[in-house]
């Protein structure tokens, strides 16, 4: 522990420890808010209070942090958080159990009086576990400031954690940010694999560029003794020795943690499953991790000079890696680029504000496409040629094309509307209505919809754009089904990416329409769930009742165990679909008529009854 560090390490203090996660990692739709401390793959290690204070909050839930404990430290102005616990110490556990029985609920969120549970640094407050949305036994540990913003515990220099490994750079990305921009005379997103000598990386070839460009990076950090790929908290980029952006992920308020969806390139993640972080500030990004920036970190090159770009990566222990690459300003030319083995032809695609489309070049094709938009016809020349294809670029801010005539064929982008961000917006059509709130979108959405009915499966598919646009807040979808549905009270909306796997979304009927909220674009369908959950009992006696509960479609909504009509606490681990009893009076045996009710999300109910003697 650093000399000025007022905190004790919460697991095996004074011993060497290892991490499986660090603060600021991009986790789904949020930044990881703390550090994940390994517990040797087991549960039951003692968890120590990191500093003097009092228990300010106790939360029990099947997901999230599972069994979590919050300790306020008034003298430091902070709060420490301990997540995925197996159990609390006896005093806290008795209080929680009493409250669970009082509220008749496994999940509780408790705020004890300040005087209820005072703690001293080094007090054992819990045992480590694997509860909640944990992928394996570990302790999730946070230090929050007086505004409840998570800060980076590793900045305090805990001696229990060793790290002399510099961050690893996997790929560098370059992206055109306007219709007139080019990278090696082409438009789009391009990846480069740098060569490495120790902690220095170099993109060997000079990259020819023009216009507005964004730089992206894919990489990770590792710590001694662990193979886990962790986040990189500090990045900065210099162009010709001038700092253009400085990113430090040290405090991320929960209210805007979802902005990770536009810090990481959402389109690339959706289409190629690659996590590239942007070294520029995209529209709609409100994160406060950008400490210094010029022109939002966007590089704008219109000359013919060579520019030196240097990216510096630092982890919390000061280990550094550096990436160097050279960009040569080159005026765009409409000419055949030649054989590009990485070129992948497609019919049409949206990249940010640009519609890119292409056609096979032939002698009688001509050089122009005709774009029909704004009730007018526009003659559009080819942006460039590559591998016998003509590539055309249309700025969607000019207008939404109804159709495009190219090489004697018609292209129908099926784009219907520009949906602006920061504006409440409603869209109506025969198959569904959409309601975007003012904070639904990070950035402009070019809406593409479709409707399909699969009569063989008695299913209809409602497509609400591609899932290449992140949503910040919910939107309302009101479907107008054309098929007839039996058991309407058992119908829910489901999201699907492949028409084979379906994720329950919920929703309700409002007369002949079906309404639900969502923060994900893509394909939706309505499906019935008429099958009750399943119960598989593994132990039942006077001391314990344990079983597995599963549901094939809509998922488990709730459950209740009673013995002779008295409510009994059943702990829940949704990872294992497992529930188990916990008595309020440990010495009192279970005896009498036992009944377990389990309901799914459309209220199908399964009841298990037995008698315990």
Structure description:
- The protein has 613 residues and is mainly β.
- The chain is 4% helix and 47% strand.
- The chain contains 3 helices and 52 strands.
- Strands 14, 15, 16, 17, 18, 19, 20, 21, 22, 23, 24, 25 and 26 form a 13-stranded mixed β-sheet that branches. Strands 1, 4, 5, 6, 7, 8, 9, 10, 11, 12 and 13 form an 11-stranded antiparallel β-sheet that branches.
- Strand 36 (425-428) and strand 37 form a beta hairpin.
- The mean pLDDT is 94.
Structure keywords:
613 residues; mainly beta; 13-stranded mixed β-sheet; eleven-stranded antiparallel β-sheet; 3 helices; 47% strand
List the helices and strands and how they pair.
Layout: E1 19-21, E2 26-27, E3 30-31, E4 35-38, E5 46-48, E6 53-60, E7 67-73, E8 78-88, H1 90-103, E9 108-110, E10 118-119, E11 124-128, E12 138-144, E13 150-151, E14 168-176, E15 182-183, E16 189-192, E17 195-197, E18 200-202, E19 207-220, E20 234-239, E21 242-248, H2 260-263, H3 266-272, E22 277-278, E23 290-293, E24 299-301, E25 306-314, E26 320-329, E27 348-351, E28 354-360, E29 368-373, E30 376-381, E31 384-386, E32 389-395, E33 401-406, E34 409-411, E35 415-419, E36 425-428, E37 432-436, E38 445-454, E39 459-464, E40 475-479, E41 491-496, E42 503-506, E43 508-510, E44 513-518, E45 522-528, E46 534-540, E47 545-550, E48 556-563, E49 566-573, E50 578-582, E51 592-600, E52 605-612
Parallel strand pairs: 18-26, 19-26
Antiparallel strand pairs: 1-4, 2-3, 4-12, 5-11, 6-7, 6-9, 6-10, 7-8, 8-11, 8-12, 12-13, 14-16, 14-19, 15-19, 17-18, 19-22, 19-24, 20-21, 20-25, 21-23, 25-26, 27-28, 28-32, 29-30, 29-33, 31-32, 33-34, 35-38, 36-37, 37-40, 38-39, 39-45, 40-44, 41-42, 41-45, 43-44, 46-47, 47-50, 48-49, 48-51, ...
């Amino acid at each position: 522990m650093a000399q000025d560090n007022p905190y004790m390490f919460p697991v095996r203090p004074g011993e060497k420890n290892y991490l499986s996660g660090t603060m600021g990692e991009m986790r789904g739709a949020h930044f990881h808010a703390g550090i994940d401390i390994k517990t040797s793959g087991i549960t039951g290690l003692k968890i120590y209070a990191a500093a003097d204070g009092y228990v300010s909050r106790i939360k029990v839930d099947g997901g999230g942090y599972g069994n979590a404990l919050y300790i306020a430290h008034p003298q430091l102005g902070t709060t420490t958080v301990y997540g995925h616990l197996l159990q609390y110490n006896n005093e806290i556990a008795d209080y929680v159990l009493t409250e669970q029985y009082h509220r008749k609920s496994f999940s509780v969120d408790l705020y004890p009086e300040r005087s209820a549970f005072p703690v001293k640094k080094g007090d054992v407050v819990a045992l480590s576990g694997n509860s909640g949305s944990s992928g394996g036994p570990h302790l999730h540990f946070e230090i929050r400031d007086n505004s409840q913003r998570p800060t980076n515990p590793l900045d305090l220099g805990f001696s229990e954690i060793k790290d002399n490994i510099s961050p690893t750079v996997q790929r560098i990305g370059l992206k055109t940010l306007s219709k007139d921009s080019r990278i090696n005379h082409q438009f789009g997103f391009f990846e480069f694999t740098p060569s490495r000598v120790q902690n220095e990386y170099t993109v060997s070839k000079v990259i020819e560029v023009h216009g507005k460009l964004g730089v992206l990076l894919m990489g990770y950090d590792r710590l001694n003794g662990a193979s886990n790929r962790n986040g990189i908290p500090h990045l900065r980029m210099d162009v010709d020795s001038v700092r253009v952006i400085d990113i430090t992920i040290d405090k991320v308020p929960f209210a805007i943690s979802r902005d990770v969806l536009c810090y990481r390139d959402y389109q690339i993640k959706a289409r190629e499953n690659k996590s590239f972080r942007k070294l520029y500030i995209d529209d709609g990004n409100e994160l406060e991790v950008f400490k210094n920036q010029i022109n939002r970190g966007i590089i704008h090159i219109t000359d013919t000079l060579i520019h030196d770009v240097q990216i510096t990566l630092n982890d919390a222990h000061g280990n550094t890696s550096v990436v160097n690459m050279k960009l040569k300003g080159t005026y765009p030319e409409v000419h055949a680029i030649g054989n590009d083995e990485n070129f992948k032809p497609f019919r049409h695609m949206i990249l940010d504000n640009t519609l890119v489309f292409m056609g096979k070049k032939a002698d009688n094709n001509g050089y122009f496409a005709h774009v029909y938009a704004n009730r007018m016809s526009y003659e559009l020349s080819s942006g460039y040629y590559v591998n016998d294809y003509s590539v055309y670029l249309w700025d969607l801010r000019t207008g939404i094309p109804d159709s495009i005539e190219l090489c004697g064929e018609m292209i129908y982008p099926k784009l219907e509307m520009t949906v602006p961000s920061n504006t409440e917006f409603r869209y109506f059509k025969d198959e569904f209505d959409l309601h975007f709130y003012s904070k639904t979108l990070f950035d402009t959405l070019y809406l593409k919809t479709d409707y399909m009915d699969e009569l063989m499966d008695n299913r209809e598919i409602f497509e609400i754009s591609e899932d290449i646009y992140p949503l910040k807040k919910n939107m309302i979808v009101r479907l107008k089904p054309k098929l007839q549905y039996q058991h309407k009270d058992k119908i829910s909306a489901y999201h699907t990416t492949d028409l084979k796997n379906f994720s329950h979304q919920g929703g309700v009927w409002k007369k002949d329409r079906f309404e639900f909220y969502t923060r994900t674009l893509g394909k939706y369908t309505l499906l019935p769930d008429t099958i009750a959950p399943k119960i598989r009992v593994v132990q039942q006696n006077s001391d314990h009742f344990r079983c597995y509960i599963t549901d094939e479609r809509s998922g488990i909504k709730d459950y209740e165990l009673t013995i002779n009509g008295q409510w009994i606490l059943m702990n829940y681990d949704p990872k294992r679909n497992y529930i188990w009893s916990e008595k309020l009076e440990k010495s009192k045996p279970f005896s009498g008529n036992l009944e377990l009710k389990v309901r799914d999300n459309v209220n199908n109910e399964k009841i298990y009854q037995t008698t315990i003697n």
